[in-house]
Design goal:
This protein has a 9-stranded mixed sheet, sandwiched between helices. The protein has a single domain, classed as Rossmann fold (3-Layer(aba) Sandwich), CATH 3.40.50. Helix content is 28%, strand content 24%. The chain is α/β, with parallel strands linked by helices. The structure holds S-adenosylmethionine. The site of S-adenosylmethionine (SAM) has 20 residues, from strand 2. S-adenosylmethionine binds next to strand 2.
């Protein structure tokens, strides 16, 4: 997906991926990463997810990256935080108490910029990218996070029935992307019935990468 696709998605408000609730598995599964309190969580392709609100409330620090500035402005508005906006690098930085969100392309971000990361939360990020981008994305997430443990949420369905995004990402695909670096454990999953065009089974699956 090229940047124009996501700019149009946000300007047309075609943001069905944005949930009105905190992800139902986040609270129950994050502890599998065994993070210290106050850990710094990296959210690649973060949008304006309410999961960020939840993480901040739990005392985590958050660092995100998001291509579309409108999304980041809305995130800070909804958090009721007036950001300090820092320009100078390739990406603009929106900063508040315990939260840094970089505006721009994840592939332009450096590990020196985002500093240390204790855990990664990938919801609707890996699955937002077409197959040909996923290897570069996975390598970049590992580079940026120092291969920190990940809570990763994917979809599995018959890709022939829907174009994506979100795309179907199987365990075999995860093994190819992350299997050299991480132990990959399937934590839980549920049937997901919100893709209108898919008549066969859709599963939403939660993984722990340690
Ligand atoms: C499917 S949405 C998911 C957003 C968020 N994770 C959530 O759960 O609501 C994917 C987001 O990634 C952003 N995005 C896509 N490609 C990106 C890239 N190369 N770098 C940074 N952000 C990107 C899009 O603008 C979009 O907001």
């Amino acid at each position: 997906m090229e940047p124009e696709f996501w700019n149009e998605t946000w300007s047309n408000r075609d943001i069905a991926f944005h949930s009105a609730n905190v992800h139902p598995f986040l609270a129950g599964q994050l502890s599998t990463l065994s993070l210290r309190s106050g850990a710094r969580m990296f959210l690649p392709l973060c949008g304006k997810t309410l999961d960020i609100h939840w993480l901040l409330k739990q005392g985590f620090q958050v660092v995100g990256v998001e291509l579309v500035e409108t999304a980041v402005q809305e995130l800070f508005d909804e958090l009721k935080v007036t950001p300090e906006i820092i320009e100078g690098g390739k990406l603009k930085l929106y900063r508040g108490d315990n939260i840094d969100v970089y505006v721009g392309n994840i592939f332009d971000l450096s590990s020196a910029e985002i500093k240390s990361v204790d855990g990664v939360y990938d919801r609707a990020a890996l699955v937002a990218l077409p197959e040909k981008m996923r290897k570069n994305y996975a390598d970049q997430v590992m580079r940026l996070s120092g291969s920190a443990p990940q809570l990763l949420i994917t979809f599995e369905y018959d890709q022939a029935e829907m174009e994506g995004p979100p795309f179907s990402v199987t365990r075999q695909a995860l093994n190819r992307l992350y299997g050299q670096t991480y132990e990959i454990e399937r934590l839980t999953g549920r049937n997901y019935e919100r893709f209108e065009n898919v008549s066969s089974k859709v599963s939403e699956v939660v993984w722990c990468l340690t």
